Amino acid sequence: MGRYLGPVCRLCRREAIKLMLKGARCETAKCAMERQWRAHPPGAHSWRRRKPGDYGIRLREKQKVKRYYGVFERQFMIYFRTAERMKGNTGEALLNLLERRLDNVIWKLGFAPSHRAARAAIVHGHVYLNRRRLNRPGYLVKKGDRISVKPSERSQKFIRQTLGDGGPSVQTWLQLDAQTLEGVVAAMPSREDVQIPVEEQLIIEMCSR
Predict the structure, then answer these.
(1) Does residue 49 carry a pLDDT above 70?
(2) What is the pLDDT of residues 92-136, one digit of tens each?
(3) How many CB atoms neighbour CB 194 within 10 A?
(4) Hey, is 187 helix, strand or coil?
(5) In the chain, how many H helices and how many E strands?
(6) What Cα–Cα distance (Å) separates residue 208 from each residue in 17, 75, 198?
(7) Between 34 and 1, residue with greater pLDDT
(8) Which residue, 12, 44, 60, 126, shows the most beta carbons closer than 10 Å to its own?
(9) Helix (H) or strand (E) holding 32
(10) pLDDT at 194 over 60
(11) Angle 175-31-34 (CA atoms, 0-180°, nearest 5)?
């Protein structure tokens, strides 16, 4: 499984938006986007760069989504080709597929502080899907799927530390029982459930070339 090993704050600076790649740290003053001198694109002489053209604007939208969900180009294009074959709006179908990734569901249930931590929890066997161990972060959940925590003291402690007291508030398409550490996919995600501002039509125009 490929993964990005570089500095993640650099990605947020490049896209000029908080991608929540470091979990709770992104909501504090330590976040690079909160520091005025670092809220610029990475690289030397960033203030001298020209205004991006049509291609650059579309590229940034695609890169923003890829980095938020933690997928590489090949994975992203597989999702795009799948969305093209689905009924309805291709852009909304693409975002729907990305929202259904298991690592994204784990993060939105509060079982992990970030997408990266959610992938680690899945690969290390802390998470079960429908009572069975699954080590594929890119698995697409379906309505009715149950996500639970491995019945071991280590796994339970790890997840409860992340959840905190009472558990987080989750989106309407998910249900969480903080006592039993079990989540249920109550419905399929909608366009409104995407938490970052994105113009999916620009992505479709970029990938359709």
Answers:
(1) no
(2) 999 999 999 999 999 999 898 888 889 999 999 999 999 999 999
(3) 17
(4) coil
(5) 8, 5
(6) 25, 16, 17
(7) 34
(8) 12
(9) none
(10) yes
(11) 115
Q: Give the tens place of pLDDT for each residue, 79-91.
A: 999 999 999 899 9
Q: Are 185 and 141 in contact (CB under 8 A)?
A: yes
What pTM did the predictor assign? 0.86
CA dist., res. 108 & res. 170, Å (int): 6
User: Which residue is listed with tokens 């579309």?
Assistant: 58
DSSP secondary structure, 117-164, as one string: HHHHHHHTT-EEETTEE---TT-B--TT-EEEE-SSHHHHHHHHHHH-
Q: How far is Cα 147 from Cα 111, in angstroms, rounded to an integer?
A: 10
Mean residue pLDDT of the chain comes to 85
Greatest distance between any 2 Cα atoms in the chain = 55
3-class DSSP assignment, residue 176: strand
Domain-by-domain residue ranges, the chain?
A: 9-98, 101-185
**What is the CATH T-level fold of the domain 9-98, as seen in this structure?**
Ribosomal Protein S4 Delta 41; Chain A, domain 1 (1.10.1050)
pLDDT at 155: 87
Give the fold, CATH level 3, of 101-185: 3.10.290
DSSP string, 57-106: HHHHHHHHHHHHHT--HHHHHHHHHHHHTSSS-HHHHHHHHHHTBHHHHH
